[in-house]
Amino acid sequence: MAEAPRNRRMKIVATLGPATSDLGRIEALFKAGADVFRLNFSHGAQEDHAANIASIRRVEKKLGRPIAILADMQGPKLRVGRFAGGHVVLQWGRPFRLDLSPQPGDSSRVQLPHPEIMAVASAGYSLLLDDGRIQLEVVRQKPDHLETRVAVGGRLSDRKGVNLPGAVLPIPALTEKDRADLAFALDCGVDYIGLSFVQRPEDVAEARELVGGRALLMSKIEKPQALEQIEEIFRLSDAVMVARGDLGVELPPEDVPLIQKRLIRAAHRWGRPIVVATQMMESMTENPSPTRAEASDVATAVFDGADAVMLSAETATGKYPIETVRMMDRILTRTERDDDLRAARAGMRPKPEKSSADAISGAARQVAETIEASVIVAFTTSGVTALRVSRQRPECGILGLTPDAEVARRLALAWGVHPLVCEPTFTMTETVARATQLASRAGLARRGEEIVVVAGVPFGKSGGTNSLRVARVGTTPKD
């Protein structure tokens, strides 16, 4: 028997790692509330990810619920080299050299194996190391090294990251490692590809060509430069992630919450699922309960209108991965019951596009609210119909029915959508009958309750949402 629908609309993305890379843990995470599993290709070998993918599909088959898999590419992560002693302590005001030499570093220099940085970091420019904990000011720029002064000192260890606020680096979003990982992930049948460190629309266009429609493309917004052309990035993307960790390094902390809200509003306009990520319940990597501030952060994502929230180290390496997902599920469920949320949702609905498909989706929400329907059933070949209904943020749930297992998995990320694979239908009468039957079987509607059904005629053709019916569960539909 299929797993029962969630009691919430928001989705949870859980990252797999050493703490959760076995079949039992993956099943427990899903039962606790995870809807999408993220594989972080910055860590682990391809064989490890292949084993996790196989386990996820086994859980999916056992529980009868489509599960989405996000393969998150590492991207061009910029890092310093290694130190002879594993780390150094940089003192304020002291000179420090960044060069191309692979020799282990010391308190006076270290390797920076990125000539692209040396090409753009002119005198007066600031470099942030180790998530902004260390700050260096460029004193002199040379083709093969940078002479800097320590503006903010501290302990710096091997392979720490480097950020360049305000600079657009002449590097692709996909490295050679990423290209190999991308081909591997696509061959394994993942549902979403996470594109890291997007700077320009061209980064997304290049990745889109490589993906070739075999998965959906999720652009991660973690570079301030991406904000300058964000509308075009949204247009080229299938989904978006607000990666607040790196954004918070290169931007003032007070700007990040506002950017989160801005990006979510843009996602609604474009009809793209959007994930809020990074440090949502980070204290639970070590503790069995979150801070009150973290609980408020998760609730804020609900009120902002995100489709999903993501857990990273909390489930990948934390001590309490199952408890973290369960707690996040509790916070989301409780927040969605708040009376003020209905008004907030109404205020964030975008203006309908001038198309029959968008008009039908908007009408489905209005009709469902007027008759207090139990659920909106969206028959979809490509997933677009269900996404259009999801964009309307109806008060009732959405049952996304599709004959395509890949489409059903991709819909597992979308707000409010309970995806199921079903046999194709060929007439509206057959469609309505199937809708009432499956809505009842899934526990989304009871006998005698009304549901709203949206579909496209002729059937089997993508992108043609043009029909709406109201049906009562337990009665025979008529044309």
Overview of the molecule:
The protein has helices at 23-32, 46-63, 115-120, 176-187, 201-211, 230-236, 244-250, 256-270, 292-304, 313-316, 321-336, 340-348, 356-371, 384-391, 405-410, 428-441, and strands at 11-16, 36-40, 68-72, 87-90, 95-99, 109-111, 126-129, 134-142, 145-152, 154-157, 162-163, 192-195, 216-221, 239-243, 274-277, 308-311, 375-379, 397-402, 417-421, 450-456, 465-472. Helix 1 crosses helix 2 and helix 1 runs parallel beside helix 11. It contains 16 helices and 21 strands. Helices cover 36% and strands 23% of the residues. With 479 residues, it is of the alpha/beta class. Strands 1-2-3-12-13-14-15-16 form an 8-stranded parallel beta barrel, surrounded by 8 helices. The chain has a 6-stranded mixed sheet with strand order 6-5-9-8-7-11. A 5-stranded mixed sheet has the order 19-18-17-20-21, sandwiched between helices. The protein has 3 domains: 11-76 and 172-337, Alpha-Beta Barrel (TIM Barrel); 87-163, PK beta-barrel domain-like (M1 Pyruvate Kinase, Domain 3, Beta Barrel), CATH 2.40.33.10; 351-472, Pyruvate Kinase, Chain: A, domain 1 (3-Layer(aba) Sandwich), CATH 3.40.1380.20.
Quick overview:
This protein is an alpha/beta fold and 479 residues long.
Q: So, CATH architecture of the largest domain?
A: Alpha-Beta Barrel
**Strand percentage, roughly?**
15-25%
What is the fold named in CATH at topology level of the largest domain?
A: TIM Barrel
Provide the low-confidence segments as ranges: none
Adjacency order of strands in the biggest sheet: 1-2-3-12-13-14-15-16
Mean pLDDT: 94
Secondary structure: number of strands: 21
Distance between the termini: 32 Å
Percentage of residues assigned to helices = 25-40%
Number of helices: 16
The level 1 CATH classification of the largest domain is Alpha Beta
Major β-sheet profile: 8 strands, parallel, barrel
User: What is the overall shape?
Assistant: elongated
Strand-pairing-aware structural class:
alpha/beta
Q: For the CA atoms, what is the radius of gyration?
A: 24 Å
The overall number of domains is 3
CATH homologous superfamily designation of the largest domain: Phosphoenolpyruvate-binding domains
